[in-house]
Design goal:
This protein has about 475 residues and is of the alpha/beta class. It has 16 helices and twelve strands. The strands form four sheets. Strands 4-3-5-6-10-9 form a six-stranded parallel sheet, with helices on both faces. It has a two-stranded antiparallel ribbon with strand order 1-2. The N and C termini lie far apart (about 85 Å). It binds thiamine diphosphate (TPP) and magnesium ion (MG).
Amino acid sequence: MFRRIAVSSSRFPLAYSCSRGLATATTPQVSGLSGSRLPNSQSYITPKLHFFNSVTPDGQQIPTYRVLDGLGKPFEDATVPEVRFRLIGLDGLLKTSMQIDEAYARKIYEHMQLLPALDNVLYNVQRQGKISFYMTAYGEEATIIGAAAGLKNDDEVLGQYREMGVLLWRGFTLDNVMNQCFGNEEDFCGKGRQMPVHFGSIDHHFHTISSTLATQIPHAAGVGFALRRDPNRRGKSVAACFFGEGAASEGDFHAGLLLASTIPSPTVYIARNNGFAISTPSSEQYHGDGIASRGPGYGIDTVRVDGNDVLAVLAAVSEARQRAAEQGRAVLVECMSYRVGHHSTSDDSFAYRARAEVEDWKKVDNPIVRFRLYLESKGWWDSTAEEELKTRLKADVMKAFKRAESLPRAELSELFTDVYGGEMPWNLKEQKAELASLLKKYGNTWGPWKSELARFRNKGEDLLKEVK
Ligand SMILES: Cc1ncc(C[n+]2csc(CCOP(=O)(O)OP(=O)(O)O)c2C)c(N)n1
Ligand SMILES: [Mg+2]
């Protein structure tokens, strides 16, 4: 028998451990060739011509780790039947082992509910033309909040764009969210110079989102490496990188994982496999066994998780971050879910998938309902609590929306600041002067410019005063 890689590790049975030492321990002896190996590898020589196309020992697809069944009941033989994990407690400290108690479970649930509360309002606000763009996280609430809870709050996060929930988990406020989406003068992420949902916050260890798919993947390998080189953060902090299964088709995915594996770098790669890359279904995105099968190819410990089970995601990500921190190496977690919403406000997904399919997913495998059933079974939640929560979240979101809408944009001249450190380069100075002279000529005479200018603090006066 030809066995390509090592099987499960003792610390986490469903992870495919790829450390080189294990290969020797688990590879069977081949009769007649006992002990013969290639001189430059650990590979045994075999007389059997055997092709393989699976990373599991039995040729099956990689299994999916789950804690709660569809009705929110923990599996009897789950890895953690009493739902006790290594957790970052509500005090922000890492516990070797901690039971999920009522306070912790409610915090998770409230954050899962906060995402659709925001999405419902901001999606419609975009439709009314008040913001330019928006992306919802419908269907991925368990993946995003479970992963956020599994990380330490000072782990460096490099997201793709659907990970606003990580920021919210870390204390980013509703005002912060709204200010960024409206790009008003209080948007500290980018002073209104980024598209909505392109958040970034130094205080929340959240690197600014880039629309260009997959760039965050090699960047994360570098961030992880920098953490490893920093004596104050080595062994304590990791880089956590989110990306979609579509982004994983970019060259940057392969470059990034190879880099993180070989340098090596304490980086947790979290693949959100939500079944679609805009209109491309995952069945057309790859021919192999999802994203997880690629981890062992790069020598990276890997696990696949039910992304609709918040406790499974939490357990897998917290174990992955611990491995990454302790071993200084990359780990890959693939979270399986289904993108219930449209890709973005620029998409109509019913042009390429049936409405009935989406409705089925909402009912049959809803991550929020699943966790709510778990809470109810513990006596921690009921319909009154549900009603109160939804009313409160809606009111909070509406309050932040109205406030953000009423604020002006930053001063127009801010358009040119902070692009580079140090003195402003000549080309920006030139562009700034050109804009100022155009404003002087047309700003208060041409209707569209006049109404746009009125939306900036000081109505563009800061630029106009620079025109001689
Ligand atoms: C380099 C690059 N190519 C294409 C696009 C256009 N684009 C934006 S999002 C997207 C789909 C990404 O899908 P996935 O990675 O699965 O993430 P999801 O939207 O499902 O969360 C595409 C093709 C882009 N932004 N950047
Ligand atoms: Mg996707």
